[in-house]
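Sync notes, pocket subgroup
Present: LS, DG
LS reminded everyone that the earlier model was apo-only. Rerun requested with adenosine-5'-triphosphate included. Inputs:
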Amino acid sequence: MSAAVEPPAIELVDIDKRFGPVRANDRVNLSVARGTVHGIVGENGAGKSTLMSILYGFYEADGGEIRVDGTPARIRSPADAIRLGIGMVHQHFMLVDSLSVVENVMLGAEGGALLDRGLARARAELDRLAADHGLAVDVDARVGDLPVGLQQRVEILKALYRGADVLILDEPTAVLTPPEAKALFGLLRTLREAGKTVLLITHKLEEIMAVTDRVSVMRRGQMVATLDTAATSPPELAELMVGRKVLLRVDKRPLAAGEPRLAVENLSVVDERDCLRVAEVSFTVRAGEIVGIAGVAGNGQSELMEAIAGMRRPTLGTIALDGTVLTREAHTPHNLRRLGLLHVPEDRLRTGLVPAFPAYESAALGFTDDPAYGRGLLLERGRMIAHLADRMAAYDVRPPDPLLKTSKFSGGNQQKIVLAREIERAPKVLIVGQPTRGVDIGAIEFIHRRLIALRDAGVAVLLVSVELEEIMSLADRILVMCGGRITGERRPEATDERDLGLLMAGVEGRA
Ligand SMILES: Nc1ncnc2c1ncn2[C@@H]1O[C@H](COP(=O)(O)OP(=O)(O)OP(=O)(O)O)[C@@H](O)[C@H]1O
């Protein structure tokens, strides 16, 4: 342990921040010791990202003080933060795909341009950082060609290159595969050993347990606890986060599956670049059954879901609903919705919502002919608003304001709006991609219960998720996809994460 006299690397004192009526940060205090990994948890909209944005100079606090190494600091922009040795790794990387790693790292760094510091010098510096911290990456590779895990590494290198002593990571594993996440944690430990300080926001309590020294819990804009990680547990953290006990396990009745509702036969899908993404995939989903598709992101799951949902044309094969093969004309998102096939897209900002619309309009996307909204072209705004207000209450969306612009909701609350839109319309078949990405533990429990309730009510559910735990606890049957093919089928009680992991990597698991 470091000497008691050393001031904390970061101290936030009585930080306040309001957005209109929302008190996003309410007299928040936080003290982070140098050379530690400090976790921050809290339910969706608790104010975690706002607090970190204040520390990084994206927002200015309405009140309170920031101290860096014991000295009061004025941080009015990210440039101020960087000057004080604070770096941030964003969830959506701020990298230029067409430039190389070394060019990206130099971009915007002090002195700005490629001209200023010679490329050779930057390369040498990157090599040193890579060697010191075990951050191997090909500095001449084009960033757009790197897998997501390595792009994240470039973001970290960029922050270190600019002299960061404190690194803020906002849900860094949301975009990573399990091996990439493991590699990231190894790296965080190395950075800690080198005396760096890491602030880690995550919804995954096992990550908190695995890698942090201390953990702070936020709830409704306030800091409710800071604990030594070794002295706490996931159930205790979950309870502090949501203010009640959370069931971390899913309870479900035995399977009582009925008729096949969705039948996919020899389906193949080729993408825009003529690459085969889905190769001769066949399966059925019966009424009252959840079929889970496990796989590392990018192995054809997205294209498969989009093809079924009528957003992409399959090149070969058929899709049948209730025993009737869909013709080309019938296979449109609009008609599928009419037939009772609903779809929760995995990428909510790209295909699920329109960020610039008020929430009630985003929540009506694709359903503007719903009789509940009124007739014909004259949609009744009042009814759309009332309808979403009901859903917001049921899903505990915060703030429960249907008129607020979609982009102003926190990530997890946006996810709840999309889920509520699709799930609550009595589907016969529900296709749901990454339903709990970015949502907090209380909301995960709620969403899992809703999916089980739909199954028990006879809905055929196709669940695609990169979270193995989610697939294992919800699915009645698990299909594993790798390289566009189904590489195995398992019952959850007859498999484990290792077996599925092998199938996901294209290696035959145990029979
Ligand atoms: N630019 C903004 N304008 C209006 N309200 C905002 C803005 N940014 C955040 N908020 C509100 O402030 C509150 C805190 O949001 P914040 O993004 O900090 O939560 P979070 O804890 O990071 O949530 P999540 O886990 O869902 O990402 C939320 O109610 C959110 O809707």
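DG: DSSP finds 17 helices and 20 strands in the chain.
LS: The chain has three domains: 10-242, 250-340+427-511, 350-425.
Action: DG to write up.
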